[in-house]
Each structure stands twice: as structure tokens, then as C-alpha cells.
């Protein structure tokens, strides 16, 4: 039952991280002269609008994730991991970027920490709730 209670917070955190990555990609498209030199002004403005929209929605999802979660640390780590992974895939898909092995080792360690945090947090929450009673 605690998994069902956690799910909305985790989902909001994952979406916040993804939207942060989309916002960064939009900024790179609208302001980065090296990537799309032939991009017309209206398309650059559209990417700029997407940047601000994604940021606004990202902050909304992050606030919802923090309200829904019993741990701000879990929310922060989940959002960060989601952002890193989304940035890697969007960078490869849109800009043809590749990442060195050390980067993947780092993101793997981040994800491992996230898994440890998610598996230990319910026990901490239960002990915290039992102290209240």
C-alpha cells in the first residue's frame, strides 16, 4: 500500500526531470548557433517559448512531487536521475551527442543510489510513523 502512495510523487519527479531536459534542449535549439544555423527566427522563438513552458510545468511537477513524497531527498534524487538520463537520450537523438564511458559509470552510480534510497525509505518512514504514536 505504501507503493501506491509513493507512486504519484515518483511519477511527478520523473516528469519534472524529463521536462527539465526538454527545456535544456529547447534552450540549446533556440540559442545555440552551432547546431541549427538554418533554423528560422519563428522556429527559434517557438523553441524559446517551449523552454519557458517546460520550465513552468517542470516546477509545477516538482512542487507536486515534493508534496506527494515523504522524502524531499528521494524526490530530488529521482528528478536529478530522470533529468540526466533524459538529457543523455535527447542529446543523442537531437544533437548526435555521445557520452564517454565515465559519464555512464557516473549515471549508473546515481541510479544505484536512487534504488538504495527507494528501497530503504519505506523502512525509515515506518519507523518515523511508529515514533509519532
TrEMBL record:
InterPro entries found in the cross-reference section: EmrE-like, TMEM42
Signal peptide per UniProt: none
Keywords: Membrane, Transmembrane, Transmembrane helix
Keyword Transmembrane helix included in the entry's annotation: yes
Residue stretches spanning the membrane: 43-63, 75-95
SUPFAM superfamilies hit by this protein: Multidrug resistance efflux transporter EmrE
Origin: domain of life: Eukaryota
PANTHER family: TRANSMEMBRANE PROTEIN 42
Protein name: Transmembrane protein 42-like
Source taxonomy: Eukaryota, Metazoa, Chordata, Craniata, Vertebrata
